[in-house]
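Target chain:
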Amino acid sequence: ACTVAYFNVAQLLAGKEQWREACDYYKTVIDRGYIAENKEIILLSYAIALSRLSRFDQAQSLLTMVIEDNPLHAQAWAQRGLNWLALHEKEKALADFIQAATYHSEYAHACIQLGNAYRNDQHIDQAIVCYEQCVQFLPEYYGGYLSLADMVHVKGKQLGDQNLIARARNLYEQTIVKNQECYEAYHNLGFMYLEEGDTQQAVKLLHKALAIEDNPASHLGLSIAYLQEGDFLKGWREYEWRLKGPEKQPLHNQCTWNGTDSLHNKRVLIYAEQGYGDTFHFIRFAQLIKKQGAII
């Protein structure tokens, strides 16, 4: 009874995320001799608490004990995989995540997390393997298809492989079937069509994306599509959204000319915002500013 009381206190402390204190009580439970039928939950709970404190070596030993006693314990496999990921042992993490998903498909979400880690390290092939595992175990989860589409598209562009690019397009379409409110799928697919020169399809998809999320990036894509079609009125209007993105703020603190206010005797600074090609192309319009009485 006393051992059970220590375990209950440990669980209560863990619920409050007081991990250090919880570990002390879990250790006391083990030192006092746990009841055999409670061994699994005690070791797992202790391992999770140790993991929260980044005491991974101890945690991995306990999780391995749980797995050896019960190879079908999905949560133990998943937690050990998360610890491997924290230790930058990605291959070991993937192996454990696959085992966890084999016994409980919901743990395939961890494959997304591992895939993102590979993605951040620019390891495209490994990220694709992880995302494919998620799609295999969770065929109805749209996030797996979306992440897989992103990486397959990147690889296809790098290799110039039209088959991979076509597969990425199909994966984005499957994402939309799984979740018709997925902004990223419409946006990314819209940009794919834009890159391929299909501006009509790009405009259609980007408008759908904007109906879900009013994002400057999609407006910028629309501007490029409209400009390519020769619809300069819509194109330049949408292009103003470039200034509303988090990394595209004006390079000055002064007010920006709105295109209609009088410039007579006003001092106007013209600065290069884009590349040299755009700068050389548009500098000719400085004459129109000067004709309105501005001092350039």
